[in-house]
Fold this sequence. Notes:
Blueprint: E1 3-8, E2 14-18, E3 36-38
Antiparallel strand pairs: 1-2, 1-3
Amino acid sequence: MPIFEYRCETCQSIVEIFLRSKEERPVCPACQGKNLEKLMSAPAGHVSSASSSLPITGGCPPMDAPPCHPQCCRLPR
């Protein structure tokens, strides 16, 4: 049961939504809007504790990649 990241076209909120099935339609929890765009998000993972590496997180992509979404933390505000 995946969790997807969406941007609401009505209020521009970016939310993570847990969907139980492919037929389930996401609804914005902020404004109850039904026009949501699925965003590409980085997968989360974890490196073995035997490694000295840090965990992999679902943050922004590398600086030479395009922004992850319209409210990307790398874009000027």
